Amino acid sequence: MPMRGEYLGMELLIDDTDAIQRDYFAWCKKGEYRLQRCSGCQLLRYPPTTACPFCAAPASTWAPVEARGTVYSYGEVHHAIQPAFRKYVPYQILLVELDTQRGKPGEHDGLRVTGNLAKPDGSLAPPELVRRVGIGSRVRMVFADAGGEIAIPLWTLDEAVEQTTPWRYPHE
Fold first, then answer.
1. Which of 72, 125, 148, 159 makes an SS bond possible with 5, Cβ 3.0 to 4.6 Å?
2. What is the pLDDT along the chain (172 residues), one digit of tens a residue?
3. pTM of the model
4. Pair 4, 12: CB distance under 8 Å
5. Does the residue 130 lie in any domain?
């Protein structure tokens, strides 16, 4: 039976045949962030997939990951195409480099995970928070309950660390 949920009024559906995505979102629902650890080279990978992008080994296990990191890049949306997001503009889509596995397998590599910027309660960030976040901001993961068996991983400012002034794209 497919996994179902709802996020911002949009139906979410993960088919029975997509076991990897089902596992990923089931861990999120439990409030745990886990990624696949390759049984061959032992490296973690994101996004979840059927084989290791580093050594091509197919076997993996789900390993807990401390979901804290630094904003590596971001996009700021001012014109939402998806109607469910229109009332939240501007909103941010973050690319976060996790503290875990930084510099592996090579010095410029690392685990980089996407997600929207949110408040600590998992609701999308208001404009005043969006204006405070940029490249170099320290963030931690939070989860938005999507009902059923699904939770959405999102990012919020990490209040446990001192924030420096982030770099932001210049606005016109």
1. 148
2. 899 999 999 999 999 999 999 999 999 999 999 999 999 999 999 999 999 999 999 999 999 999 999 999 999 999 999 999 999 999 999 999 999 999 999 999 999 999 999 999 999 999 999 999 999 999 999 999 999 999 999 999 999 999 999 999 987 5
3. 0.94
4. yes
5. yes
User: How many domains does the chain fold into?
Assistant: 1
Nearest to 166 by CA among 67, 96, 77, 89: 96
Closest of 30, 9, 1, 18 to residue 150, by C-alpha:
30
Let me know: does 92 contact 74? Beta carbons within 8 Å: yes
Distances 123 to 6, 42, 101, 120 between C-alpha atoms, Å:
14, 34, 28, 8
